[in-house]
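Figure 3 (text version): structure tokens given as input.
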């Protein structure tokens, strides 16, 4: 082991852990980075253990670390000599000192971890890696409120893939259940319009949209760690065709010649896929102006 109370000749060095405590997504690769202040290049090791050991944010003594190491509860990997890490602006972080040596190691997040950095005769305090899973959107439930002219009754669909097919102007209520508690949920329409969803009991989210054009929508949610659902599923929005009304004059059904003052009987058939509000007869007698009559 690099740390032994019985080895006083090991040089004390200052270890500054840059990563500190961190929350990462399960399955994601992440870096643990540190700097060691020493006159000479000292090798550094990363010791980590699944976090049932409650040492987070505590200063652990050498004897405690030695005991844990000897019990074989910690895994260790050498840290790689590196350059100063950079922030989002591309500027180097950490201490700009001649004696500073930067180290890093890359791990894959599978379980919560406690970790320490060891170099020469020194160790850092213990830090914690918290591993979380992203929220997932479950089954979708749709309720259709059709335009009044269509005379269609409200339709409810449950446990559906989520695609919407409806008449233009239909109000669609969208409901789903999320795998964990979230503090933000939105319907995103055609990657442009965002509609806030209500967050209810039992991780329920509910919102709605009005079908005005074809395209797609998805549900985006964000949990209390600021983590959003990964690769949201997109669902189609299809406008159901509203066909043109059809009308047919059955009687006389052809051009005819009649005498003045004769009564002409008309019979017709009018139909539409969503019903008719009214039928109007347009007619003209001789050279008179055209007239309308509601039938």
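Below: residues designed for each position.
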């Amino acid at each position: 082991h690099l740390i032994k109370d019985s080895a006083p000749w090991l040089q004390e060095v200052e270890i500054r852990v840059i990563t500190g405590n961190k929350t990462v997504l399960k399955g994601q690769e992440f870096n643990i980075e540190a700097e060691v202040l020493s006159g000479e290049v000292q090798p550094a090791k990363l010791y980590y253990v699944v976090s049932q050991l409650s040492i987070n944010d505590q200063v652990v003594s050498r004897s405690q670390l030695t005991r844990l190491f000897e019990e074989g509860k910690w895994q260790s990997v050498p840290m790689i000599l590196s350059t100063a890490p950079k922030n989002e602006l591309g500027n180097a972080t950490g201490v700009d000192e001649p004696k500073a040596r930067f180290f890093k190691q890359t791990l894959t997040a599978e379980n919560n971890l406690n970790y320490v950095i060891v170099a020469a005769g020194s160790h850092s305090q213990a830090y914690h890696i918290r591993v979380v899973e992203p929220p997932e959107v479950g089954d979708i439930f749709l309720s259709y409120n059709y335009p009044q002219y269509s005379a269609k009754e409200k339709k409810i669909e449950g446990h559906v893939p989520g695609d919407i097919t409806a008449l233009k102007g239909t109000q669609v209520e969208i409901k789903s259940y999320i795998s964990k508690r979230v503090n933000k949920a939105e319907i995103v329409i055609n990657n442009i319009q965002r509609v806030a969803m209500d967050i209810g009991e039992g991780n329920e989210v509910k919102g709605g949209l009005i079908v005005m054009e074809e395209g797609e929508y998805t549900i985006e949610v964000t949990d209390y760690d600021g983590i959003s659902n990964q690769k949201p599923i997109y669902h189609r929005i299809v406008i159901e065709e509203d066909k043109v009304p059809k009308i047919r004059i059955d009687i006389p059904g052809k051009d005819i010649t009649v005498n003045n003052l004769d009564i002409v009987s008309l019979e017709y058939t009018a139909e539409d896929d969503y019903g008719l509000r009214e039928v109007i007869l347009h007619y003209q007698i001789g050279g008179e102006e055209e007239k309308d009559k509601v039938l």
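Helices lie at 62-70.
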